[in-house]
Design a protein that fits this description.
This is 2,4-dienoyl-CoA reductase-like NADH-dependent reductase (Old Yellow Enzyme family). GO terms for molecular function: FMN binding; oxidoreductase activity. It holds the Pfam family Oxidored_FMN. InterPro entries: Aldolase_TIM, OxRdtase_FMN_N, Oye-like. The chain is of the alpha/beta class. The chain has a single domain (20-394), classed as Aldolase class I (TIM Barrel, Alpha-Beta Barrel), CATH 3.20.20.70. The chain is 31% helix and 16% strand. The strands form three sheets. The protein has an eight-stranded parallel beta barrel with strand order 3-4-5-9-10-11-12-13, surrounded by five helices. A three-stranded mixed β-sheet has the order 6-8-7. The longest helix is centred in the middle third of the chain and has 21 residues, at 170-190. It is globular, with a radius of gyration of 20 Å. The chain starts with 38 loop residues before the first strand and ends in a 20-residue tail after the last helix.
Length: 399
């Protein structure tokens, strides 16, 4: 598939404003030129193919985005990123949250905070979507906002005689599906440019995908098709709750926070059995989360997980995983490594992979925390000036 082809949700007549992401009118370093082509996205056109990956920041006391959160996202648009995906923001369910000070996507105060974020990003010519999140079995009793609420998941987890994760009933499943749909509707109402469903990394949707965490014997467990049912119900409900041209992005991964070698699909055929129904249900773009975006996904083929996803579904794909860093991330790496080198050749190679059709958009994470101007420096061939990611970047929100 030609990477210049608009997404299925695109408006083919749309053209990017020259001021979009502050990058449209500048000359581009030839080695990375594919990364700076426009891309049709729902009702709009992204100025380039660079996407800020969702990264939990835990800087929203009481779940409400602050003035600093507004400034944080505004600054990344000013630095040249075409599309921002927010940090995970929790849907309206008692067990959706699992961490302190993460933002909520429900309640008058939190939604008002997100409206200010959207307006600030749009004022700079950028585009932004929220990542809608339910942490599933990652939650434990004692966590805000209500410490008495356990985690929720496909199957119960008992630790030292205490049920720390509740096996979801049909009513629980229906409530979570409805909460995702409401959050997506609120995203469109607030003026976001689409919405991402977090179906990766061992959170609630992924908990149903993975056999290790889904031990159910009903219609939501057992076969691959049954384990995909929960995700399909969410996608269908979200699709029905938003406009046809409001993009739905679905993030998935093979690996989990507790197991790098985990797989929800052992073969390309199994991957297709998961992803094709999701595409038919209403997913417009797949966000393929890997530790190293360039690594082969399955034995016997050099193709990456992003390339397989694009081939199997025919949908546009965001690839992400250790872009521009000197090593692939590890869970807890934020705390375990002081600094990372920026590797110019990695960005060049990513541009080549995009040009040959392996994926359509490139997700970039940690380096944008340390250097909001990363995209502009890459565009101008000044990668050597990039401020590498280090531990201190986690303590700062506004740079």
């Amino acid at each position: 598939m030609d990477t210049a082809t608009p997404a299925p949700t695109a408006n083919p007549g749309a053209t990017p404003a020259a001021s979009d992401a502050g990058i449209g009118t500048h000359s581009v370093n030839a080695a990375v030129a594919p990364l700076f082509q426009p891309f049709a996205f729902g009702r709009h056109t992204l100025a380039n193919r660079l996407v800020m990956a969702p990264m939990t920041r835990s800087k929203s006391p009481g779940g409400v985005p602050t003035d600093d959160v507004v400034a944080y996202y505004r600054r990344r648009v000013q630095g040249g990123v075409g599309l921002l995906i927010t940090e995970g923001t929790t849907i309206n369910h008692p067990a959706a949250n699992g961490y302190p000070q993460v933002p909520a996507f429900h309640g008058e105060a939190a939604l008002a905070g997100w409206k200010r974020v959207v307006d600030a990003v749009h004022a700079e010519g950028g585009r932004i979507i929220p990542q809608l999140w339910h942490v599933g079995i990652a939650r434990r009793p004692g966590v805000e906002p209500d410490p008495s609420v356990p985690g929720y998941g496909p199957s119960a987890i008992v630790t030292h005689g205490v049920e720390v994760v509740r096996a979801m009933t049909q009513a629980d499943i229906d409530a979570v599906v409805a909460a995702f749909a409401q959050a997506a509707a609120d995203a469109e109402r607030l003026g976001f440019d689409g919405a991402e469903l977090h179906g990766a990394h061992g959170y609630i949707i992924d908990d149903f995908f993975w056999e290790q965490t889904n031990q159910r014997t009903d219609a939501y467990g057992g076969s691959l098709e049954n384990r995909t049912r929960f995700a399909l119900e969410i996608v269908r409900a979200v699709r029905a709750a938003v406009s046809p041209d409001f993009p739905i992005v679905f993030r998935f991964s093979q690996w989990k926070g507790v197991d790098y070698n985990a797989r929800i699909a052992q073969t390309p055929e199994e991957l297709g059995r998961i992803l094709k129904p999701l595409a038919e249900a209403g997913v417009d773009i797949f966000h393929v989360s890997t530790r190293r975006y360039w690594e082969p996904a399955f034995d016997g083929s050099p193709d990456t997980l992003a390339a397989w996803t694009k081939r199997l579904t025919g949908k546009p794909v965001i690839a992400v995983g250790s872009v521009g860093l000197d090593g692939a991330f590890k869970v807890g790496m934020f705390a375990n490594r002081d600094a990372f080198e920026v590797k110019p050749t990695d960005v060049d190679q990513a541009a080549q992979a995009l040009a040959r059709g392996d994926f359509d958009l490139l997700g970039v994470g940690r380096v944008l925390l340390s250097d909001p101007d990363w995209a502009i420096k890459v565009r101008d061939g000044r990668v050597g000036e990039v401020v590498p990611f280090d531990r201190a970047a986690l303590d700062r929100l506004v740079v």
